[in-house]
Guanylate kinase
Amino acid sequence: MRDPAKQKAMAGPRPVVMSGPSGAGKSTLLKKLLTEFEGVFGFSVSHTTRSPRPGEEEGKDYHYVSREVMKAAIANGEFIENAEFSGNMYGTSKAAVQAVQAKNLICILDIDMQGVKNIKRTDLNPIYVSIQPPSMEILEKRLRDRKTESEESLQKRLHAAKVDMEISKEPGLFDVVITNDDLDVAYGKLKHAVLEEIQKVRDAHKS
Ligand SMILES: Nc1ncnc2c1ncn2[C@@H]1O[C@H](COP(=O)(O)OP(=O)(O)OP(=O)(O)O)[C@@H](O)[C@H]1O
Ligand SMILES: Nc1nc2c(ncn2[C@@H]2O[C@H](COP(=O)(O)O)[C@@H](O)[C@H]2O)c(=O)[nH]1
């Protein structure tokens, strides 16, 4: 296959990487996207060693595994990227991304900053979106109000957030940086960032 146009058309839609501090609103925004555009996006279900939160489901939100299982799978080459975050392991398996791409859907990855840097070394070629909170104070309030973290985990996440907010300003690291203040405004910006890929999937479904 030498025709670049044909190659591009066959490559399928570009994945979307969503990153940003814990509590910035990534899951809230991506859930809106998955609901509005059913049959267009697919979520890359990560593995984690943290325990499920109330309401979270195995295989939907995460694959919940022990540290031993995760380490063995990483050693076996099953992961595209993995990271240690707030005392737990997280990782994107090759199978998670392939499951979405096999359906020709836009694969969404919700990953931390270490994950972003590692994905940059692969040939995944995603659109990189950073979701940022309006301020550290608002971030802390959102995380506390979510009531999912112990004080220790909360402090670790706030520390990581400060680093994330600085690094995300690095020119060229993200295609789009969205401040999630008003949810509807932030969602509008996210949709705009991925519009071209949405159109590709819709065109492919028509033909
Ligand atoms: N624009 C917003 N205004 C007010 N509250 C918001 C907004 N966006 C999200 N929230 C709330 O903030 C909290 C954190 O949001 P969310 O869980 O989506 O963050 P996250 O970035 O996915 O975090 P994590 O990385 O820990 O999974 C949630 O309780 C959510 O309802
Ligand atoms: N590098 C990766 N980071 C991931 C992955 N899955 C989730 N995450 C990030 O972890 C933190 C915490 O998530 P939480 O669900 O415990 O609040 C958050 O920033 C996620 O984006 C992954 O596979 N790789």
Notes: The two ends are 21 Å apart (CA to CA). DSSP finds eight helices and nine strands in the chain. Residues 183-206 form the longest helix (24 residues). Helices lie at 4-10, 26-36, 67-75, 94-101, 113-119, 136-146, 151-167, 183-206.
